[in-house]
Amino acid sequence: MKHEKIPDQPAIEAGRFCLRPLRYSDTGLIELYAGDARVAMNTSSIPHPLPPGTVEALIDRANAEDRIEDYWAMDGSREGGSEVMGLISLSRMDRDQSEIGYWVAPAYWNTGVASAAIEALLQADPQNCKTIFASVFQDNAASARVLTNCGFTYLGDAETFSVARNARVPTWTYSRKTD
What we know:
Elements: E1 12-13, E2 18-21, H1 27-34, H2 37-40, H3 54-63, E3 69-75, E4 86-92, E5 97-104, H4 113-124, E6 131-137, H5 141-149, E7 153-162, E8 167-177
Parallel strand pairs: 5-6
Antiparallel strand pairs: 1-2, 2-3, 3-4, 4-5, 6-8, 7-8
């Protein structure tokens, strides 16, 4: 049995759900959803198929004291939803900047979960950022709409490597000031 280490990271209210630090009991649901090809193919870092131990390693990193990225589960259990509807993260950068990343389980697509999670994280500003960056694959227009609806401004085109696609993928890059 693994003892849960509580990371020095706040839980954040997001309306009908909360954002809370990851815990080892989330492993099964994260494996289920992140193992879905539709989720993995829209991220740069989730491999498909999902190798054994990948989620445990993610949770270990999320609980590390020297982590550079904070992760939250989108937990809807208090309203009768899933304990994990998706994940959202903030990666620390220099000059009071961070990069936001997120994915939502397919069962919760088009329900406003991503927008609510991003808005809650921006309001809480747990890393005291001045600017938040984000990028989405150009073939994921739904994620681009989420960012623009949350007040992000388009910066330009780029590309990044997708582990699941085993290819470089064109991206759109966005930013939002938090002040």
